[in-house]
Amino acid sequence: MFGTDVSDDLADPAVFEQMDELVQQRLLLGLPAVVDATNVTSQARLRMIAWSARIGNPVWVARFTADLATVLAQNAGRAKVIPADVVTRYAEIMAEQATDEQLISEGIDRIIDVPGLREATTPREAVRLAFPDHILRTGFHREAHEDG
Predict the structure, then answer these.
(1) pLDDT single digits (tens) 91-138
(2) Does a structural domain hold residue 57?
(3) Distance between alpha carbon 106 and the CA centroid of its chain, in Å?
(4) At CA 39, angle to CA 33 and CA 43, rounded to 5?
(5) Burial 78-100 (b: 16+ CB within 10 A, else e)
(6) Residue 25 pLDDT level (bands cut at 50, 70, 90)
(7) What is the pLDDT of residues 64-99, one digit of tens each?
(8) Distance (Å, rounded) from C-alpha 26 to C-alpha 75?
(9) pTM for this structure?
(10) CA distance readout (Å), 144 to 22, 61, 69
(11) Is residue 25 a part of any domain in this protein?
(12) Considering the domain boundaries, does residue 24 fall inside one?
């Protein structure tokens, strides 16, 4: 969706710049913004949390709970395989920096642990489990406006 070439690691800064701009635009318009990124560290999440806080939007996190063996197996089946040691390190960082306590302390309003392929749940189904349709369609501002 973003960047010049998925296989070009040098495009990552451009990819994230484009994503950041689009997410901020959607939030300012009162639309939902779902970011599909690893974001296992506090540093990676804090800028997005700040964007939502500035406009009074809640921040929800969909945390996939697949065990390391499942993640490594899924990675091995991808077109662009990430080295296993990198995947393992990210899993270790997530275990340290994406606990309930840590996420809440950062300003996350809702944490949703969603099933994955191990539980025969596709990514699309997981998003639907985590985020109700009306939130995905209209965003938080409009939902609050319609209810109030």
Answers:
(1) 999 999 999 999 999 999 988 887 766 777 776 777 677 666 655 555
(2) yes
(3) 15
(4) 105
(5) eeeeeeeeebeebbeebeebbee
(6) very high
(7) 888 899 889 989 998 999 999 999 999 999 999 999
(8) 30
(9) 0.71
(10) 22, 19, 41
(11) no
(12) no
Q: How far apart are CA 95 and CA 104, in angstroms?
A: 15
> What are the b/e assignments for 61-75, b being 16+ CB within 10 Å?
bbbbebeeeebbeee
d(CA 136, CA 130): 10
What is the number of domains present in the chain? 1
**Domain coverage including residue 130:** 36-147
Q: Is residue 2 part of a domain?
A: no
Burial class from Cβ neighbours inside 10 Å (0-12, 13-18, 19+) for residue 35 reads middle
CATH code: domain of residue 45: 3.40.50.300
